[in-house]
Amino acid sequence: MGTDEIREKYLDFFKKKGHIEITPSPLVIDSDPTTLFTSSGMQQLAPYLKGEKHDIQPSIRMQDLDEVADNRHFSFFEMLGNWSLGDYFKKDQLGFVWEFYTKELGLPPEKLYVSVFGGGGGVPKDTESFEIWKKIGVSESHIHFYDAEKNWWSRAGTPDQMPPGEIGGPDSKLGFYAVPKN
Q: Start and end of every Alanyl-transfer RNA synthetases family profile domain (predicted)?
């Protein structure tokens, strides 16, 4: 399955869930003088802070150039994003992610692992996501807790580095275990 097919499956999946596709913004956003490049799929959502929106957003990352070309860091990529701005929360979102990976993409559930925020920086451990992943059917041995260095998103970094009012929070990631071919 190629990237074009994955992109179409992703868009179709979330349209069926009632989401609306929004047009990607350019890598350089004229309307935001605070940033040089679009570095995430959420930056250009400011005009869309009502309802459910999702996008496939070209993004460029410069803050971790020394890590580019490992198994998960790129300087330019398309970020598949879906956003619930007040409509639903973790239970539905984690269920959607699991359904997309296992049903739409056909990835075997026994090869999927998830991470959950383990607490830190004055923010408690995310036991709610842990319980939701278990209820979805993820084996406890496939759920891993990580601290803010690995499982926290914000432009400033970890919770203790965030200025007042900065948007950010714990995240939960899903990964596929693949054995390299010899």
A: 1-182
* In the chain, domain spans: 1-87, 88-182
C-alpha to C-alpha distance for 87 and 169, rounded to whole angstroms:
18
Helical residues (DSSP H) of 17-141, grouped into ranges: 90-99, 127-136
d(CA 142, CA 87): 28
Q: Cα(82)–Cα(102) distance, rounded to whole angstroms? A: 17
Torsion of CA 10, 11, 14, 15, to 10 degrees: -150
The CATH homologous superfamily for domain 88-182 is: Bira Bifunctional Protein; Domain 2 (3.30.930.10)
| pLDDT the model gives residue 72 | 58
Print burial letters for 140-175: b (CB count within 10 Å at least 16), e (below 16).
Answer: eebbbbbebeebbebbebebeebeeeeebebbbbbe
CA angle 32, 35, 39 (to 5 degrees): 110
Query: pLDDT tens digits for 101-114?
Result: 999 999 999 999 99
Positive or negative, the CA dihedral 29, 39, 67, 10 is: negative
Residue 62's pLDDT is: 59
